User: Which sequence fits this backbone?
């Protein structure tokens, strides 16, 4: 079963990374601005295929090495964590190789010559319904409140020693003594997740609008649908995680088969990852894969802001007041690292888990 879990995980990650060049906007290739009509160019097609093949081959190799190198569930857990970091690093290095090749192709082709660069903005964009209401998170808040209340009322029924971590077989690997601090750890994480998902949903509405200069009307409709789909995903994914933590907390009070928690938890995580893959493929970055109208304006070139995208993935533009912008490579959003609040957010992302680890240790 452990082998199946590892293979499913690396398969989903490999699929997500391999399709990334195909779900990115057609005006961008490996973090480089291109004209939309250049997207089907044979040389660019070849680069996308080579990238996908390299990602899949690397993921298969990494999974094979992991499975051959470990012999027990505990070693598999440690190896799995290391393999995840190796996968992230390896995928990024593969991307950098193709990013540099794409820059060389652009320099040789000189696509922008004789074309007018344009930035399209719709002043009524914010007046549209871009996300599902945050009121949906009242469901998540109710489950979180129920977890806190259940823990408080049933404190005496919780065992003196609590299993906090399990291996792939459902065997406890880490125990803590019962205290108010330890039993309220998971409800606190639930509360933080609730705040995080509300913030992410709000960010989707407030992020910088980006319209295709060659086809602004179609691009506008695609972008609205793109945001609404990801808003729905955030609401559903957030609820799944909060329900998962509720089930784990419930197991401290009443007997719940460990295999249900283990496989249910892994199933929920895999479902979220698979959902993100499907949503990315069917929607595309900025809604670029959603079929809406046609008729691009020839001779108009998307504004080339490559200078502000370091390595094609890190956005640094002091002249842009936007905090959140669409990713250049992949689906979703990233921070403007020239915005002071951007570094504050990164600091919180790092600090909060550290504080939780110290407080609940």
Assistant:
């Amino acid at each position: 079963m452990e082998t199946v879990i590892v293979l499913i995980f690396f398969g989903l990650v490999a699929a997500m990374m391999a399709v990334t060049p195909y779900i990115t906007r057609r005006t961008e290739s490996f973090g480089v601005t291109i004209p939309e009509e250049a997207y089907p160019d044979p040389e660019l097609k070849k680069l996308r295929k080579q990238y996908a093949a390299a990602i899949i081959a690397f993921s298969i190799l990494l999974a094979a090495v992991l499975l051959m190198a470990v012999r027990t569930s505990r070693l598999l857990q440690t190896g799995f964590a290391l393999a995840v970091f190796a996968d992230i690093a390896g995928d990024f290095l593969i991307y950098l190789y193709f990013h540099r090749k794409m820059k060389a192709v652009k320099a040789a082709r000189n696509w922008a010559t004789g074309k007018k660069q344009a930035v399209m903005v719709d002043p009524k964009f914010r007046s549209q319904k871009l996300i599902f209401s945050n009121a949906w998170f009242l469901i998540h808040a109710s489950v979180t409140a129920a977890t806190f209340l259940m823990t408080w009322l049933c404190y005496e029924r919780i065992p003196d020693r609590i299993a906090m971590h399990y291996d792939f077989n459902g065997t406890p690997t880490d125990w803590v003594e019962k205290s108010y601090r330890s039993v309220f750890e998971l409800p606190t994480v639930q509360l933080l997740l609730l705040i995080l998902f509300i913030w992410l949903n709000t960010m989707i509405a407030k992020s910088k609008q980006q319209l295709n200069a060659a086809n602004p009307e179609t691009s506008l409709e695609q972008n609205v649908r793109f945001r609404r789909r990801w808003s729905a995903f955030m609401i559903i994914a957030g609820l799944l995680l909060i329900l998962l933590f509720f089930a784990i907390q419930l197991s401290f009070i009443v007997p719940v088969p460990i295999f249900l928690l283990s496989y249910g938890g892994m199933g929920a995580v895999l479902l979220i990852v698979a959902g993100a893959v499907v949503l990315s493929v069917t929607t595309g970055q900025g809604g670029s894969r959603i079929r809406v109208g046609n008729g691009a304006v020839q001779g108009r070139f998307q504004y080339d802001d490559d200078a502000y995208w370091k390595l094609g993935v890190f956005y640094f533009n002091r002249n842009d007041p936007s905090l959140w912008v669409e990713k250049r490579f992949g689906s979703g959003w990233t921070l403007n690292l020239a915005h002071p609040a951007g570094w504050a957010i990164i600091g919180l992302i790092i600090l909060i888990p550290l504080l939780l680890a110290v407080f609940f240790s």
